[in-house]
TrEMBL record:
SUPFAM superfamilies named among the record's database cross-references: Acyl-CoA N-acyltransferases (Nat) (SSF55729)
Ribosomal protein is among the record's keywords: yes
GO molecular function, one term: acyltransferase activity, transferring groups other than amino-acyl groups
Organism classification: Bacteria, Bacillati, Bacillota, Bacilli, Bacillales
Gene3D superfamilies assigned to the protein according to its UniProt record, in alphabetical order: 3.40.630.30
Name of protein: Ribosomal protein S18 acetylase RimI
Annotated organism of origin: [Bacillus] enclensis
Record-linked Pfam families: Acetyltransf_10
InterPro entries the record matches: Acyl_CoA_acyltransferase, GNAT_dom, MshD_Acetyltransferase
UniProt-listed PROSITE patterns: GNAT (PS51186)
Alphabetized UniProt keyword annotations: Ribonucleoprotein, Ribosomal protein
CDD domains: NAT_SF
Length: 274
């Protein structure tokens, strides 16, 4: 568990790094604030000042990594030191794979992943809804709360739509079910359960992710109708609605844009061989 001083130090360093490069770091604060172990976070302090931080986020045997170094202390080997410690920790856990998260416009981040020969894997986009736009409701498509009976289908959707292994899909779902403020919803079209979507409310904002439609029901307009339904429900209490998506092509992005979302920044993921 991270103490309040550590959390405050991380936030202060994040603000400095984001302002310096004009980027948005994805530090997964919902996970940082609810750590249950002490082997996922690595710090570099000098004279009581936090100069470097690296975090690991586990989803089954798959891990993600995000970190930062104070702009005035880059080139001093700080991140290299933190990365080495993280790799030793992952080796002890028999981790299966590692994805390194780099803000799309971060020059320092790109330099690091090139230096360690990490391979580009995919890009995730954070999009924000423009109030009043893109909502087209349909009586044939709606959502309902997920039940225990839906767990097998949720796991299958993560495997089929996101390419996850069964082990990773099961572990991620188990973790999601414990997160505060998170709603796991099933998407129904004409009485058939055809997909899933998750909504998390944090400090007056709604975050939508884990959006998946069964491949057998894709390209029928169900995804757009389901997204409109969720946005309509969330817009009853906030205009700050965000969507995290890994869009592989312009057609996929178009779906979200026609639903009233606009890209505000992107995160590139690189796969590193352990």
């Amino acid at each position: 568990m991270l103490n309040q001083k550590q959390l405050d130090d991380i936030k202060a360093l994040q603000d400095i790094c984001e302002t310096h490069e004009g980027i948005k770091l994805k530090l997964n604060w919902d996970m940082l604030q609810h750590r249950t172990a002490d082997h996922d976070d690595f710090f570099h302090y000098s004279n009581k000042n936090l100069l470097g931080f690296l975090a690991l986020y586990g989803f089954g045997v798959q891990y993600e990594l995000c970190g930062m170094v104070h702009p005035g202390h880059r080139g001093e080997g700080i991140f290299k030191e933190l990365f080495k410690k993280a790799m030793i920790s992952l080796k002890d856990r028999n981790a299966g794979s590692l994805l390194i998260n780099v803000p799309g416009t971060s020059g320092s981040g790109k330099t690091f992943v090139e230096a360690i020969d990490a391979d580009y894997d995919f890009t995730e986009y954070e999009m924000k809804w423009e109030p009043g736009s893109g909502i087209t409701l349909s009586k044939s498509v709606m959502t309902r709360g997920m039940t225990e009976d839906d767990i097998p289908q949720c796991i299958s959707l993560d495997i089929d739509c996101f390419g996850q292994s069964r082990t990773d899909a099961e572990a991620m779902l188990k973790q999601m079910l414990t997160e505060q403020g998170l709603k796991s919803l099933m998407i129904e079209a004409d009485g058939q359960t055809v997909g899933k979507i998750r909504v998390q409310r944090i400090k007056g904002q709604s975050f939508i992710y884990g959006f998946a439609i069964d491949p057998k029901y894709q390209r029928r307009g169900i995804g757009r109708k389901a997204l409109s339904y969720v946005v309509s429900e969330e817009s009853k209490w906030t205009d700050d609605i965000f969507l995290d998506v890994a869009a592989e092509n312009s057609h996929a992005l178009k779906l979200y844009e026609t639903s009233g979302f606009r890209t505000i920044y992107s995160q590139d993921y690189y796969r590193y061989k352990l």
